[in-house]
């Protein structure tokens, strides 16, 4: 079974992040098609898969089209019952579906005031009453999940599920705008920021894409609150490796880390590594 996943700008498209995590975290392959937010409308750019008009959108090899992330999640869970998309225990599974649906349809103030921005973090954003209300609601829902979770671990129901994929952009908002939540919620936010899959998504957004001015907020900026990436810089060859750690192709673009030079098959492979070298298992093994 093959899939084509249409996504928007990785730094700003929160729903695209959710769709991509459904494949990345549950070990499903897909071909990616990118929609440029600075070009024509999304609907115009994906008109070949109408009636989908937004990203993420999914085209399946049987011709099925899903233009909604929740429908996508449920369909993938149905098509791949061997993958742990939902918790196995009935009470936890029911709660995970409930929380995912809440995320899908609620938290309008938080979304409106704090659009996902993985390129810029802010230190002192005042949260008005509507945002505060959304944060308290999130804490209540997450506490409910933590109380049910039987497997332990940092995620809502112990092991990673669709619910966690849907709340990943919320974690980015809370962290990126310096919003205040309780200790349990803050630990959950930190787990998302440290998740290698989330870090890879952010690194790819920094490597390919532009800073879009309409997402800018007039608040003091701060360093990104996630784990500090390993220091790397652009370099000239030759490199100690002859083939790219991702594609196996001959190298043409280079990075230096701790005096060592590594090669990649193109600028994107190089730059996604530059922004977070240890988020990439293939490169971490080489390093």
Automatic annotation (TrEMBL):
Gene3D superfamilies attached to this UniProt entry: 1.20.1050.10, Glutaredoxin
GO biological process: glutathione metabolic process; L-phenylalanine catabolic process
Span of domain GST N-terminal: 1-84
Coiled coil regions in record: none
A Pfam family reported for this protein in Swiss-Prot or TrEMBL: GST_N_2
Highest taxon in the source lineage: Bacteria
Signal sequence bounds: none
One Gene Ontology MF term: glutathione transferase activity
UniProt protein name: Glutathione S-transferase N-terminal domain-containing protein
Organism encoding this protein: Harenicola maris
């Amino acid at each position: 079974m093959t899939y084509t996943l249409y996504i928007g700008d990785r730094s700003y498209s929160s729903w695209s992040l959710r769709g991509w995590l459904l494949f990345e975290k549950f070990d499903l392959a897909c071909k990616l098609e990118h929609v440029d937010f600075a070009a024509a409308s999304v609907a115009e750019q994906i008109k070949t898969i109408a009636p989908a008009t937004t990203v993420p959108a999914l085209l399946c090899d049987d011709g099925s089209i899903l233009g909604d992330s929740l429908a996508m999640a449920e369909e993938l869970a149905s098509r791949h019952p061997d993958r742990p998309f939902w918790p196995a225990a009935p009470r936890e599974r029911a709660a995970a579906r409930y929380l995912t649906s809440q995320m899908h349809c609620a938290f309008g103030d938080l979304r409106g005031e704090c659009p996902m921005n993985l390129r810029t973090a802010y230190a002192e954003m005042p949260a008005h009453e509507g945002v505060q209300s959304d944060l308290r609601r999130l804490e209540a829902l997450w506490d409910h999940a933590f109380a049910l979770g039987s497997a332990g671990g940092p995620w809502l129901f112990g092991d990673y599920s669709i619910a966690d994929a849907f709340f990943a952009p919320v974690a980015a908002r809370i962290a990126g705008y310096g919003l205040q939540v309780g200790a349990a919620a803050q630990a959950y936010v930190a787990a998302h920021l440290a998740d290698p899959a989330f870090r890879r998504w952010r690194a790819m957004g920094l490597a390919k894409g532009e800073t879009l001015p309409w997402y800018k907020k007039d608040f003091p900026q701060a360093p990104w609150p996630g784990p500090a990436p390993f220091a790397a810089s652009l370099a000239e060859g030759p490199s100690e490796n002859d083939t790219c750690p991702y594609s196996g192709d001959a190298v043409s673009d280079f990075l230096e880390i701790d005096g060592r030079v590594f090669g990649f098959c193109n600028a994107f492979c190089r730059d996604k590594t530059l922004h977070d070298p240890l988020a990439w298992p293939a490169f971490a093994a080489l390093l």
